Amino acid sequence: QLVESGGALVHPGESLRLSCIASGFNLQDHWMTWVRQAPGKGLEWVANFHYGSGKRFYLDSVEGRFTISGDNAKNSLFLQMNNLRAEDTAVYYCVRDREYHPRSTELWFDVFDVWGQGTQVTVSS
Amino acid sequence: AIQMTQSPSSLSASVGDRVTITCRASQGIRNDLGWYQQKPGKAPKLLVYAASILERGVSSRFSGDGYGTDFTLTISSLQSEDFATYYCLQDYGYPRTFGQGTKVEV
To answer: In the predicted model, what is the mean pLDDT of residues A82-90?
Structure first.
């Protein structure tokens, strides 16, 4: 299970930190992802993070403003969001990637199998 | 970024209908594609990954197919609980990109 928190109403240019607490599995064993959905719009991948390797990737429009990180001790994932813009307004979902790796191949597939309930971020003046 | 284009954007169907949704990638993505179902006010749910592998616990009336640039999600016999919005997602490259969604309505 994943439970997000930290969403709020903020002004443009302000910062916010989202948290996601996992139960029933260890975050460090998986790639973890943030996906967002603006009001009435489709899904948008935001960023992902792998504890073991420390690798992280970002959507172009958030790179340099958002930072994804984790805390093994708290089994938690975070998204630090700085210099927020109106277009960042969305429900933010924390997602586990179970990954699928067929034997005898070098292929890896994303398997977004566990989703949080989402936390609302609103950026408005 | 790889663009994912779904068609149609919406469709009207009845219980028992066979429904097919298409997703086209702007470049070849092998079979690095998943399908997700979302109902209003709820988080998305995984249906299919690696283009054609059905997630455990998902009804066998759902099936995925395709390789390269063209992919399909088929619902063999639409049930009332299948009225929802469906999204494809490519995991071939970064950033990951979703299709714009297909809303399946009564």
So the answer is: 98
